[in-house]
Amino acid sequence: MPGGAVVLGTTDTDRIEAPVTLKTYLMCVFAAFGGIFFGYDTGWMGGVLGMPYFIQMYTHKPYPPEPFDAAHLPADFALPAWEKSLMTSILSAGTFFGALVAGDIADVVGRRPTIIMGCVIFAVGCILEIAPKDALAAFVIGRLVAGGGVGFISAIIILYMSEIAPKKVRGALVSGYQFCITIGILLANCVVYATQDRLDTGSYRIPIGVQFLWSIILGFGLFFLPESPRFWARKGDIEKATVALATVRDQPRDSDYVQDELAEIIANLEFERAHIPSSGYVSSWLACFKGSLFDGSSNVRRTIVGTGLQCAQQFTGINFIFYFGTSFFQTLGTIDNPFLIALITTLVNVLSTPISFYIIEKYGRRRILLIGGTSMVICQFIVAIVGTAAPHAQVPGGNPPAVKAEIALICLNIASFATTWGPAAWVVVGELFPLPIRSRGVGMSTASNWFWNCIIGVITPYFVSADKLNLGPKVFFIWGSTAMLSTLFAYFFVSETKGLSLEQVDQMLAETTPRTSSGWKPHTTWASAEGKVHDKVEHEGSVEKVEA
Ligand code: BGC
């Protein structure tokens, strides 16, 4: 290890991490706050696009005759489709590139400063969005810049949390990030709901401006958290890695736990580096695509699994409800207040996510992906079948029982996602990659999430618009089928990573297939495989250390 002493580890696979303390929990819980950006920033745009003041400002059309409100605007009083599409999708472009470059930056300056930079970029984007009035270019550039900041934050928070969280509760803690995403979406919906009928700039400036609060809280708070010890190990600074690890594990620096975990991190890193050496910038990117497609532990396979899993998460169809829910509920014919139903769906999302904290550690990532995916397939197909067998809008007076059944199934579908695919896709991505390519792997996977998120946002209007395919509830045949593909992807490609250290995940991937991974138990440590161990002799409760 450049610049560092040899750190000796243990042969005992159970001793490579300290017991979890409250402080270690709290650090991750704070980092999870980054999810608020993700959720809030995706949550406000749809509502703002339908605000009378915002529409008037950009179209210069006269307001419709009184009384009018955001929920009941005439069809011709709206932003043109291209403008809506540009304002919405430019965010994903920013997040896509932000997530891709963030990995590189996180390897150079560290995980923590990269997230703080993300907060600053995001705040600059918000200023551009709200400072000028009626300036489309500034608004669009602002969305792009803010998106870049969200890309930084969404990729690197996952990386940072996965690297500092204790292995026993890593899944639950990273699920906390998903919980914050859902809270962000709900908050955005509430703020937009409250301001949508104002006929001044406050209508859109308030929902956008609220976001400064998130960047101040996260950016400022992160100054007090330690850097990831795995970042310092990667840099070869053992001294700083030890201090950071001791802080995140809440242990003294010379504790056996700290020394043994550090030895594991270093031994695994040395093995990975010897396996796929990468010298320059290009070769370090190429390293993400090295190895055989048929080897579950190769870098290329992990890159495919990470990016594929995020694509699969979007293919579950969840964002159809969150992006187009309001207009879909309007088409069902019998609903008085579609905004309220949309708000209820976001509430179901928030309230069911905490169940994942428990089941992700109890049943594991792979199993809940399979169960949640199957449940989503069933729910979405039934919605489509009910919608086809009992058409509502066409029937005079509507078909309230069928609509109620559909809404109940849509809520069940959201709960299935929120307890499984929502958190598990992020948890697996954080655990999947070996340290030399981890930041890039997580960055590419996050970029894949935003890419597919954008594609779905762009094509969905064609499925449901009255002047296009006008599928109505039949659109759920499409989402049911894509959710089935997602479930099959999880079955064939996702291995069980529950309860393993990030270094043990490496061993497991090398020794099992996804289908046999659940039964795998760690049997040796990296330090012993690399011959860098101290022996431990147990003497009635005390542990004596002998240099090998
Ligand atoms: C997904 C988002 C989705 C959100 C809903 C996230 O995990 O990546 O696309 O909107 O969950 O809660």
From TrEMBL:
Any Pfam family the entry gives: Sugar_tr
Swiss-Prot/TrEMBL catalytic activity: myo-inositol(out) + H(+)(out) = myo-inositol(in) + H(+)(in)
Keywords in alphabetical order: Membrane, Transmembrane, Transmembrane helix, Transport
Keyword presence, DNA repair: no
Major localisation: membrane
Protease in keyword set: no
Similarity comment text for this entry: Belongs to the major facilitator superfamily. Sugar transporter (TC 2.A.1.1) family.
Descriptive protein name: General substrate transporter
Organism: Favolaschia claudopus
